[in-house]
Amino acid sequence: MIENSFIHLPGIGEQTERKLWDQGLRSWNDLETSVHDVFGKKKASTVLVGLEESRAALDSGEYKYFCDRMKSAHAWRLVPPCSDAIAYLDIETTGLGFPPQSHSTTIAVLFKGEILVEHEPQKKRALLERLEVRDTVDTPACPNGLGSSASLSDPERLERIRAERG
Predict the structure, then answer these.
(1) Sheet containing strand 136-139, strands side by side
(2) What b/e readout covers 78-88, taking b as 16+ CB neighbours within 10 angstroms?
(3) Could you report the average pLDDT of every consecutive run of 10 residues in the chain (166 residues)?
(4) What is the predicted pLDDT for the residue at 152?
């Protein structure tokens, strides 16, 4: 779906994207071919640069490029190309507030088609270490409805997350 999306491109919002689709421009290739017919010279140039960057980001698996350029409500557009790189993490707690009063009771992960569940503290840590996640882990308990994201490429932040989760 991301190759049929324009909303992440500079100067293109939801209404413009809908108009482009209504004009029969349904892919990056379609837009590239017709960009000078649809936009003025300056905006066409900006859109072409955005398309070039988009292709490079998609080819290299840099999905954060797209997330940084569109509202979180549109992140679902990335699921097909990066579905094998998404880990869904659910951490159950005692619900007694924040650590140290509360602690995790169970960690469950759906990753690369495998469901992993652990209850014991050392095994929970090992489970998090086992994940081969490069950018983010999504959890269902996020105010914006997409899941909160925790960067696993920052070792210090990962260690803080592990310490907080018990």
Answers:
(1) 114-118, 104-111, 87-93, 136-139, 148-151
(2) beeeeeebbbe
(3) 92 94 95 97 97 92 86 77 66 80 79 75 76 50 38 47 51
(4) 39
Sequence-distant (≥ 6) Cβ neighbours of residue 18 within 8 angstroms = none
- Residue 95's pLDDT is 82
pLDDT at res. 44: 97
User: CA 97 to CA 22: how far, in whole Å?
Assistant: 50
Look at strands 148-151 and 114-118 and give their pairing.
Answer: unpaired
Where b means 16+ CB within 10 Å and e means fewer, 106-143 reads: ebebebeeeebebeeeeebbebbeebebebbbbbeeee
| 153: its two tokens | 């490429």
| Nearest alpha carbon to residue 28 among 39, 40, 20 | 20
Distance set, CA 97 to CA 40, 93, 94, 101, 121 (Å): 55, 9, 8, 6, 19
Confirm if 150 and 133 have CB atoms less than 8 A apart: no
Alpha helices in the chain (DSSP H): 14-22, 28-38, 41-60, 64-67, 79-82, 121-130, 155-165
Res 137: pLDDT: 45
Give the global pTM. 0.54
Q: How many residues does the chain have?
A: 166
